[in-house]
Specification:
The protein is an alpha/beta fold and about 250 residues long. The chain contains five helices and 15 strands. Strands 1, 2, 3, 4, 5, 6 and 15 form a seven-stranded mixed sheet that branches. Strand 10, helix 4 and strand 11 form a beta-alpha-beta unit. Helix 1 packs parallel to helix 3. One of its GO terms (biological process) is glutamine metabolic process. InterPro entries: C-N_Hydrolase, C-N_Hydrolase_sf, Nit1/2_C-N_Hydrolase, UPF0012_CS. This is Carbon-nitrogen hydrolase.
């Protein structure tokens, strides 16, 4: 295993046009690769607006979906591991919808699939109400994948609130935990950075989060602030809420 590698988190500006999102996704992956990134992370719901009213419309099956094809092609062209944020996935056998992260290796092969285990249901009177469980089903397994640099664990957004997932990943030898996520303007200022630093310190590994950029004209307002934290809880890289790519040497 190599001693170090460059990690990139792409804080993508997501539109209602899936084709536009996918074209930009591939372009940004290749940009990160040109800047030396070997593991490249996308945000939660990078191919569609985030919202229960959108999941069914934008959902794809993995084997034939255009989003999976784009990720595979981009990973192979970039010669990088790509952690594909998440997409709304439709399971062929059951018709159920999941919030799913796909991971591809440097040859464009699908090497991991994580379905969000903890669905985001929240009701803070006067601030925000959101229920993923209205349309999504939860995943039922934990996910780690092997790279040339070590093993990495995956969670999606609300999964980060549950320390057991990161703890198990650390016990299984992971060097990092990656969370594509879309905290909002209520929960983001409260806990986004705090949770990342806690997971990193508790487990003595790196933690990275990748959010969509904020769009105040959309139905859901993402906090942004994609961040990379080292095992001592120090922030290696972060940004505000606009579209950006952040980098850190791991």
């Amino acid at each position: 295993m190599s001693n170090s590698f460059k990690l990139a988190c792409i804080q993508l500006s997501v539109t209602a046009d899936k084709t536009v999102n996918l074209l930009k996704t591939k372009s940004k992956i290749l940009e990160a690769s040109r800047n030396g990134a070997k593991v490249i992370v996308l945000p939660e719901c990078f191919n569609s607006p985030y919202g229960t009213q959108y999941f069914a419309e934008y959902a794809e099956n993995i084997s034939q979906g255009e989003s999976a094809k784009t990720l595979s092609e981009a990973a192979k062209e970039a010669k990088a591991f790509v952690v594909g944020g998440s997409i709304p996935e439709r399971e062929d056998s059951s018709g159920k919808l999941f919030n799913t992260c796909l991971v591809y290796d440097t040859e464009g092969n699908l090497i991991a699939k994580h379905r969000k285990v903890h669905l985001f249901d929240i009701n803070i009177p006067g601030k925000i109400k959101f229920q993923e469980s209205e349309t999504l089903s939860p995943g039922n397994s934990l996910t780690q994948f092997e790279t040339d640099y070590g093993k990495i664990g995956i969670g999606i957004c609300y999964d980060m609130r549950f320390p057991e997932m990161a703890m198990i990943a650390a016990r299984k030898g992971c060097i990092a935990m990656i969370y594509p996520g879309a905290f909002n303007l209520t929960t983001g200022p409260l806990h986004w950075e705090l949770l990342q630093r806690a997971r990193a310190v508790d487990n003595q590994f790196f933690v990275a989060t990748c959010s969509p950029a904020r769009d105040m004209s959309a139905a859901y307002h993402a906090w942004g602030h994609s961040t990379i934290v080292d095992p001592s809880g120090q922030i290696l890289a972060t940004t505000e809420h606009e579209e950006a790519i952040i980098y850190a040497n791991i």
